[in-house]
């Protein structure tokens, strides 16, 4: 496949315009058009359709551009690592994580790692599990940490690290503080929930589905774990939260814990890498260090 034409195609797809792509690449508009036509001829597929003054991708074009983006991201990743190798060894790790590992596990792991290898630069980004898998597949991260029920992906290697308990919490002094109640009764309370794509939201709604209970009455939707907990600390609502995030507040009697009849919730934490990748020295060292910890080290 003509990679030059493919690169031009991805620029057209990103800008949704042949004219803008030509300006961005500093080539003529006819040259861009010729390369797209050559790519369509080579693949035997219609990749772009014109709509008004703009363009849209066909379903075949959407498939190709996603694969092309992954290819060019991998190319960039290789170039960056080669530059580091010229300077002696790889000295940078890109890590992505959902909010629970990022806030309550990785600070300890990364602090220990940096004490042992202070010259290694670490970049940590966070998001929901779908975003992190995408980052890993597109070579925007070297390793990812997700909290998700058992799942499989053909190109991602999963390593189970531990299971984290999730608890229902309410403000201190709430009528259900320290009580055992039914899931149905608890769902009548105003709930703080996470955004779509959050694993905590998924498990809460799946739990309601499983027990044939209406989904919670959503009081506030947050795009962050800590923000949700702070609202409960301030006296509003109920929520499902990881025990690691709220255990200290409960011990200090700043939050109330609700027991729900016949329900115990645990979520697995996975370390994710690309299956076919050979781990760099520092990535292997980080993984070895993490494997030396257990859940008990955080309680």
TrEMBL record:
One of its GO terms (molecular function) is transcription cis-regulatory region binding. InterPro entries: LysR_HTH_N, LysR_subst-bd, WH-like_DNA-bd_sf, WH_DNA-bd_sf. This is LysR family transcriptional regulator. SUPFAM superfamilies: Periplasmic binding protein-like II, Winged helix' DNA-binding domain. Residues 1-58 form the HTH lysR-type domain. Keywords: DNA-binding, Transcription, Transcription regulation. The keyword DNA-binding applies. Belongs to the LysR transcriptional regulatory family. It comes from the Bacteria. The keyword Transcription regulation applies. Gene3D superfamilies: 3.40.190.290, Winged helix-like DNA-binding domain superfamily/Winged helix DNA-binding domain (1.10.10.10).
């Amino acid at each position: 496949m003509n990679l030059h034409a493919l690169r031009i195609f991805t620029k057209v797809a990103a800008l949704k315009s042949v004219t803008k792509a030509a300006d961005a690449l500093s080539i003529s508009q006819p040259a861009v058009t010729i390369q797209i036509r050559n790519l369509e001829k080579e693949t035997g597929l219609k990749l772009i359709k014109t709509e008004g003054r703009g363009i849209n991708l066909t379903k075949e074009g959407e498939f190709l551009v996603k694969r092309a983006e992954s290819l060019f991201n991998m190319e960039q990743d290789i170039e960056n690592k080669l530059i580091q190798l010229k300077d002696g060894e790889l000295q940078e790790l890109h890590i992505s994580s959902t909010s629970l590992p990022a806030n309550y596990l990785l600070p300890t792991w990364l602090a220990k790692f940096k004490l042992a290898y202070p010259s290694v630069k670490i970049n940590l980004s966070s998001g929901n599990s779908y975003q992190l898998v995408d980052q890993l597949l597109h070579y925007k991260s070297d390793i990812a940490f997700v909290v998700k029920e058992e799942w499989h992906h053909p190109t991602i290697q999963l390593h189970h690290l531990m299971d984290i308990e999730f608890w229902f919490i309410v403000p201190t002094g709430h009528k259900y503080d320290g009580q055992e109640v039914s899931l149905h009764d608890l769902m009548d309370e105003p709930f703080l929930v996470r955004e779509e794509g959050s694993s905590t939201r998924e498990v809460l709604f799946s739990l309601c589905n499983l027990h044939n209970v209406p989904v919670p009455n959503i009081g506030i939707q947050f795009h962050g774990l800590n923000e949700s907990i702070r609202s409960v600390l301030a006296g509003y609502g109920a929520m499902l939260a990881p025990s690691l995030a709220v255990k200290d507040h409960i011990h200090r009697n700043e939050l109330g814990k609700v027991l729900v009849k016949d329900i115990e919730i645990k979520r697995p934490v996975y370390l994710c890498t690309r299956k076919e990748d050979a781990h760099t020295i520092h990535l292997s060292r980080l993984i070895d260090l993490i494997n030396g910890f257990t859940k008990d080290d955080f309680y």
